[in-house]
């Protein structure tokens, strides 16, 4: 028969079990992913579990006996954090407040606290908080918000894109179809009066349709990531001359003089096709909004390691209200030229897109009746 333990042996075993239990509890608290905090109604922390060092970088003694809300909580979050504590004190809530707590390295850690009121418990006499690090969760939430905003913007861009296609592409093709039918009828009748006029309308409408289709294709490629940015060293003046050759006939029809003031040798490091699109759109706009007999000047200057290219015209100018709408797809502002030339609304958007892909900027200076100057920056070649 087993020997019956003595009173002292029982007392020792009980103390041993208590110590084991306390150690087990201490280890659980120490290695918990959350912090256990005891805080008074005045906001003074009386106890912080050891896991605070893992979450906040501070040792427990550095966070005890201090007004934590005043000293450690982000200024923008102090009011709601105090309100959450007061609601627990008043037994009107259990917390769930999210706030930013200072890390010892100076950064901010997002925390979420739930608690119970144990102020009336003689063994505790505090509000007991379970505090969790939710920094990663907040980061994911922010990423999701940004993705949602980008998706919303992309949907708006897509809707505007299709609106431009439906409205602007239909008009030139209607002209082409309508006047080609008239032209065919006149030829069949052997009546050649007016066919030159019809052919001219078809030519201009075809040119406009081609311009729109080109811009639409380049815009779509840029938005879907199918247009690769391929910078290279090339002579800007050579590219300008190529673009001017394409637009020479259009300028001659309005007796517009285009003056190329670029230096003979002007090397830049950029995507040649994109810069060609920028120049084509800016010079084309200059021709469109300049009266017969006017002029367009192309010049450049170096500024802080960037080459700033300017396209200036002596045209009708742009009002302050219209200037604010340029380069914005949500506005898609278009207006007729001096010979009622129609715009696509995409040219300047493409210019902005391509300039920014180069890390540059594009801007315009203008006033009504005094012409306009569009400027954009490119990286200067040092070779």
List the helices and strands in order.
Answer: HEEHHHHEEEHHEHEEHEEHHEE
Radius of gyration, CA atoms, in whole angstroms: 36 Å
Summarize the main sheet: 7 strands, mixed
Structural class: alpha+beta
What is the β-strand count?
12
Strand content: 15-25%
Task: Give the overall form.
Answer: elongated
Treating each run of at least 4 consecutive H or I residues as one helix, how many helices? 11
Outline the low-pLDDT stretches: 340-344
What's the overall average pLDDT, rounded? Answer: 81
Quote the distance from N terminus to C terminus: 101 Å
Helix content: 40-55%
Topology overview:
Blueprint: H1 7-30, E1 35-39, E2 45-48, H2 52-56, H3 60-63, H4 68-72, H5 78-89, E3 95-102, E4 108-118, E5 126-133, H6 135-189, H7 195-223, E6 231-235, H8 236-253, E7 257-260, E8 267-271, H9 272-288, E9 295-303, E10 306-313, H10 320-323, H11 347-357, E11 362-366, E12 372-380
Parallel strand pairs: 7-9
Antiparallel strand pairs: 1-2, 1-5, 3-4, 4-5, 6-8, 8-12, 9-10, 10-12, 11-12
